[in-house]
Amino acid sequence: MSVVHRLTAGWLVDHLSFINQCGYEICDSFACPGRVTLNTSVTSTEDCHGSSTFVATSSSSHGPTHSPEDATETEGKPAKMRYVFREEFFDISKPHIVAPPEEQLCQGCPEMSLTEIKKRKRKCLFNQGELDALEYHSKVRKLIWEGTLHLVQEGLKSGFLHQRTAELSCRKNNVPVVCGLAELCEMAKQYPAVNEGDHQAVYVLEDETSSPEQDLLSCVTENTSNHAKIIVLMGQKYLVPPKSSFLLSDISCLQPLLNYKKKYDVIVIDPPWENKSVKRSNRYSHLSSWQIKQIPVPTLAAPNCLVVTWVTNRQKHLHFVKDELYPHWAVKTLAEWHWVKITRAGEFVLPLDSLHKKPYEVLVLGRVQGDVKEALRKSEDVLPIPEHKLIVSIPCTLHSHKPPLTAVLAEFIKPDVECLELFARNLQPGWTSWGNEVLKFQHTDYFTLLQKE
């Protein structure tokens, strides 16, 4: 389980553990050129639910190094290899900006009014967007502070979190991965258009690792096996977890997803919201509100579908989701949850009252409205969505690698339902994922190859 602790306030989540429990085992000679077994040590640690987290102990920032003494030939059958996500991408030992002593988490929650926050930050005039953001923050601040404090205290008691010591890691986690997936999707527009009546809706990954690019870009790709597979795109290797499916395309090429003919009980959306930092960095393209409204969520959603949308801290986007987007999709807003980002020592990664960036992000949860009888049937034996919850975790240092929602949503949905993530950048077992960078964080350079006993 990725949930380390569950309290009334929410969940303390181990994102790294979740990735490494996705089943990245390869039974394939391609996974280990020359059919060698690497002798790389692995450490297993237990969380409070008894699940194991496998951690690579390689000292190289680019995966394990190996000498002839580290490898042994395997004969008669392909080597079984296991990949684990590189631990250093979650190695956040101290805050990006340290909060003033009176605001530090374990010293209790200082009560601050909106007026006090304004005075402490700056004396110049605020624009309307900043005023709206300050007002929202003043409403949720106490819930976030107190809930995070309780979850952090549990994490410190169990040993999952550790108070800061002199032994801070100095490892670098810069991986020169060139992601050309979005460009590939742009090039794919030159292929013949996919129509609703086209017969091939699914491409099933076979044992071979090289896949025709046109197949991967023109229909949903499935890994129906019980082990991971490696695919190669433009010479780059990507891991596909077991029992997962994906469509690599941009928003103008969604027809293959509709041809897939599945209806989803959970749809998670992480839109590329427009903001100043995105415009400056050119990290990824953004979509306008009008374009986001065109996503065919009503067509993809099953009756009573749970829709979860990640929202930045701009109030403009939050109001758009609740007042325009969800009504347009016939989705009723039920709750606002918050993802709170902490260090390994349990501190906020940024001061809670930072004027610009906050140590939290918002999730808006709602349900598709429709057939009342079907909705009642689907809601049997599941808990109602709480109005407010916290998901507290050590964030990945890779931009926009969101924490998993599978475990935290489990008690609010029936088991074995169909789940879809839109604008995804990674894959999950049991989920269909779509986006023009849907394989980005599946690149093998983000993983370490380990020996499988």
What does this structure look like?
With 453 residues, the chain is of the alpha/beta class. Helices cover 23% and strands 25% of the residues. The chain has a domain at 180-337 and 353-388 and 397-443: Rossmann fold. The chain is built from 12 helices and 21 strands. It has a 12-stranded mixed sheet. A hairpin with a 2-residue loop joins strand 1 and strand 2. The longest helix is centred in the N-terminal third of the chain and has 31 residues, at 128-158. One of its GO terms (biological process) is methylation. GO terms for molecular function: nucleic acid binding; RNA methyltransferase activity; site-specific DNA-methyltransferase (adenine-specific) activity.
Instruction: Assign the CATH topology of the domain at 180-337 and 353-388 and 397-443.
Output: Rossmann fold
Widest beta sheet: strand line-up: 1-2-18-16-17-15-14-19-20-13-10-9
What structural class should be given to the helix and strand makeup? alpha/beta
Count of individual beta strands: 21
Low-confidence runs (pLDDT<50, min 5 residues)?
30-74, 278-284
| Estimated share of beta-strand residues | 15-25%
The helix tally amounts to 12
Characterize the overall form: globular
CATH class of the domain at 180-337 and 353-388 and 397-443: Alpha Beta
Helix content: 10-25%
> Would you tell me the overall average pLDDT?
79
CATH architecture of the domain at 180-337 and 353-388 and 397-443, please? 3-Layer(aba) Sandwich
Give the end-to-end Cα distance, rounded to a whole number of Å.
22 Å
Please give the radius of gyration in angstroms. Answer: 23 Å
Query: Describe the biggest sheet?
Result: 12 strands, mixed
